[in-house]
């Protein structure tokens, strides 16, 4: 038996959640089963692939940085700004009443690459100062690298935020479809920039 239906005025995820809750109360005879197919099935498959994409991007970023820095610890410190970026994504999506969909998931994958760029600028300059002033205290070098790299980090972040603003606002015909991508990038990048300037130096001071 095929039962068809559509979703209007709400997101597909919450509708599937309510449907699953209702289906639990139905006693299914032996040899029979109830499956939710169509868009719901495609969405579940897309989320599985995109989740793997996020994980794979983080692993590849870590491997690339570990090879460049010849260190297993520094890349972990840099990647430590990603969870704070995820907090920003959630808060912005909640503020804009936007669901976590395929577009916002793609934004998260893009964000993983952008976030580490600013942290790399900071850490790389710190390592350069370490080579130039081996006798200087670590805390002083970290403070110097964070203060001197403040402008490039802020310029990079603000340029990206400004570029994503029209997309996040959903301007133009069909703009609402791509808006979740822009919103995810803006929220994550704003929080991750703060993390780069405060969290990364703090962790460096603690571990070094």
Give a written overview of the molecule.
- This protein has eight helices and no strands.
- It is mainly α and 208 residues long.
- The longest helix has 33 residues, at 175-207.
Estimated share of beta-strand residues:
under 5%
Structural class: mainly alpha
Q: What is the count of β-strands?
A: 0
- Count of helices? 8
Helix content: over 70%
Quick recap of the structure?
With 208 residues, this protein is mainly alpha-helical. It has eight helices and no strands.
Search tags:
0% strand; 8 helices; 76% helix; single chain; 208 residues; mainly alpha
Write the layout of secondary structure elements.
Layout: H1 12-23, H2 39-69, H3 73-79, H4 81-95, H5 102-132, H6 138-148, H7 150-168, H8 175-207
């Amino acid at each position: 038996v095929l039962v068809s239906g559509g979703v209007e005025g709400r997101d597909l995820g919450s509708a599937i959640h309510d449907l699953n809750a209702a289906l639990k109360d139905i006693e299914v005879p032996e040899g029979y089963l109830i499956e939710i197919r169509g868009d719901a099935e495609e969405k579940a498959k897309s989320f599985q692939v995109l989740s793997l994409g996020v994980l794979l991007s983080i692993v590849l970023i870590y491997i690339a940085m570990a090879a460049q820095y010849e260190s297993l610890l520094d890349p972990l410190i840099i990647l430590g700004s990603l969870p704070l970026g995820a907090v920003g994504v959630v808060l912005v999506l909640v503020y804009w009443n936007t669901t976590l969909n395929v577009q916002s998931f793609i934004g998260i994958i893009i964000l993983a690459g952008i976030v580490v760029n600013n942290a790399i600028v900071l850490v790389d300059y710190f390592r350069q100062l370490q080579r130039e002033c081996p006798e200087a205290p670590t805390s002083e070098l970290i403070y110097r690298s964070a203060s001197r790299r403040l402008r490039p980090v802020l310029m990079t972040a603000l340029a990206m935020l400004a570029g994503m603003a029209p997309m996040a606002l959903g301007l133009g015909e069909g703009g609402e479809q791509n808006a979740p991508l822009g919103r995810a990038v803006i929220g994550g990048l704003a929080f991750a920039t703060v993390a780069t300037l405060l969290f990364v130096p703090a962790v460096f001071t603690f571990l070094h």
